[in-house]
């Protein structure tokens, strides 16, 4: 089992996150992840830098940790070929440490740039076509494609990856999980109830992968708020409070999500997160992802008032416990 730290691009500016990535490596994490956003979840206490530029800097600032998008949507504002090129470049800059995490996206990252954000059926159809292009280019192929959604003419990567770049897909339900098992090399899933995740997501993913004789890799994630009081928890959660507002997948303006979140009772929003008061509670919050889910990667996604201090404390006190529970300590 490997342990990852999420550098929240919706919460902090890129120069701060670069320090966090270096600190995560120094503190014993095995991987660093970052989401690809154009807009954040709120408009008043947030950030939203270009994750691909940031990963280039992170590749040079670190030497050991794996780097993974969690996640990018190669469907609208990007041609899939550009994502393949970006992944290959980062793989070279990092010496083979890059993992491409993909998902079907949210309107908040597409609609502001003038792209439509249709329903799931079209998005998953686009993903199938996109992954054919991405896998082909990463494998060194020269592509001529006239698809329903994308075209390519003698497309080839002339700065190919140094090795195999795995493609992991985010899924929150059985349809996407099955698709991931059929078309990707790994699964990224957010786990609140381990039994539900095993039944609805991880099980279908494993079955689909087994049907094609493919190996599986599972990254389990969970948002946790570390705070000594509810007031501190609300402060720590400020950049992410719109993530739990109604209509987040279809909304383009973070102002709208902020207004919706602030119209809700604070306890209702806090209740949608796992809130812990100390590091022992934090370790216990992630323990089911190790002992019940049996994830290959556990992504630590923590909102706190002092993130740098939190990274150090998790490295010294939480990571050893999680590795002991996994039998990898």
From TrEMBL:
This is LLM class F420-dependent oxidoreductase. Keywords: Oxidoreductase. It comes from Phytoactinopolyspora halophila. GO terms for molecular function: oxidoreductase activity, acting on paired donors, with incorporation or reduction of molecular oxygen. Pfam families: Bac_luciferase. The keyword Kinase does not apply. SUPFAM superfamilies: Bacterial luciferase-like. Residues 9-267 form the Luciferase-like domain. Gene3D superfamilies: Luciferase-like domain. The keyword Acetylation does not apply.
């Amino acid at each position: 089992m490997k342990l990852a730290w999420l550098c929240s691009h919706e919460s902090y500016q890129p120069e701060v996150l670069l320090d966090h990535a270096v600190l995560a490596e120094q503190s014993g994490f095995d991987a660093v992840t970052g989401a690809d956003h154009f807009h954040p979840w709120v408009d008043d206490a947030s950030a939203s830098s270009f994750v691909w530029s940031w990963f280039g800097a992170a590749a040079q600032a670190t030497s050991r940790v794996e780097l993974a998008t969690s996640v990018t949507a190669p469907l609208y504002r990007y041609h899939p070929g550009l994502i393949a090129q970006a992944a290959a470049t980062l793989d070279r800059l990092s010496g083979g440490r890059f993992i491409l995490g993909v998902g079907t996206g949210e309107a908040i990252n597409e609609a502001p740039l003038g792209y439509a954000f249709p329903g799931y059926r079209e998005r998953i159809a686009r993903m199938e076509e996109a992954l054919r292009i991405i896998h082909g280019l990463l494998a060194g192929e020269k592509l001529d494609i006239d698809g329903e959604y994308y075209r390519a003419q003698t497309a080839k990567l002339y700065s190919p990856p140094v090795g195999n770049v795995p493609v992991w897909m985010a899924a929150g339900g059985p349809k996407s999980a099955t698709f991931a098992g059929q078309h990707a090399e790994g699964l990224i899933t957010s786990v609140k109830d381990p039994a539900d995740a095993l039944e609805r997501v991880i099980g279908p993913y494993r079955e689909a992968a087994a049907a094609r004789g493919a190996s599986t890799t599972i990254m389990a994630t969970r948002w946790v708020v570390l705070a000594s009081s509810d007031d501190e928890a609300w402060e720590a959660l400020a950049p992410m409070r719109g993530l739990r507002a109604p209509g987040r997948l279809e909304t383009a303006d973070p102002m709208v999500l902020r207004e919706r979140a602030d119209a809700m009772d604070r306890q209702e929003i806090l209740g949608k997160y796992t809130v812990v008061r100390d590091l022992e509670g934090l370790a216990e919050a992630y323990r089911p992802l190790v002992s019940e889910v049996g994830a290959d990667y556990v992504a630590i996604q923590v909102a706190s008032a002092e993130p740098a201090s939190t990274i150090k404390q998790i490295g010294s006190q939480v990571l050893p416990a999680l590795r002991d529970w996994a039998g990898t300590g």
